[in-house]
Amino acid sequence: MFMCNRYSLTAELSELTEDFRIDRVHVPYLRRYNIAPTQQIPIIQQIGEERCLNQQRWGLMPYWGKSSVNASLDTLGDKTYLRSMLTKKRCIVPCSGFYIWRQEGKSRSAWRAVHRRKSTFAMPGIYDLWLDSEKNEFPMCTLITRGSAFETEHRLPLILDEASIDVWLDPKETRTDVLYALLQSLPESEFRIYPVTPLIESVALETPDCIAELNPALSLVKI
C-alpha cells in the first residue's frame, strides 16, 4: 500500500495561528505546495503552557525502515517504540490538502484531496528525537493513517477536530484508550478531490501550479 507521501500547506501564517490558537512561532514559515518525505515540515506541539509552531523531519530515521513516513493506526500498538511515542510525544501536522495517484490502465493521474469545510485541517502525528554523535537533537515525526483513500492504494490520513486537538496535544493525557478514541477516519464525502499536474511527483516543483485544478485528461501520465 502506498504511503501518504505528498501534501500541501497553503494557509497564511496569520490564518494558521488563529485557526490553531498558536501562541508562539519558533521557525520561519512559508506556504508549501508540494511537501515530501525527509523534508522539514511545520508541526504544532505543546511546550509548557504554550502551543507552538515548530518543524520536524517528516519520517523516522535511521533504522525504522521505509514505511516510517506513516504509521498505520491498525498496527500502532504492535510496536513498543510507537506506543511510547503515542503516549508521550504527540504533535499535529497542519495540512491544506494531500495528493494521491489513480491508476487507469497503463496511465495514472494525480489528484488533490481537500476538506469541504476546512481550508486547513489537523493530521495527527507522533514524534521522536534522533541524537547524532555529538548528542544534538533532531526531531522527526510520522503521520498516523488508516485504510485507503478514494479507491486507491494510498493511505488515508486521519483528521482531528478542534476538541480532539486539545486532548491530543495535552502532554498530561497518556491513556491509550482515550487517545485511540480520537483517531477516527472521516467519510470520503467530507473531501473534494480534483485532478492536478502529474509533475507533483517531482520534489523540485514547489509552486502554486501544484494545487491548480486541471482537465482530467491533462493529469494523466503514461507509465
Automatic annotation (TrEMBL):
Pfam families: SRAP. SUPFAM superfamilies: BB1717-like. Keywords: Covalent protein-DNA linkage, DNA damage, DNA-binding, Hydrolase, Lyase, Protease. Its EC number is 3.4.-.-. It comes from the Bacteria. Belongs to the SOS response-associated peptidase family. PANTHER family: ABASIC SITE PROCESSING PROTEIN HMCES, DC12-RELATED. This is Abasic site processing protein. It comes from Cohnella silvisoli.
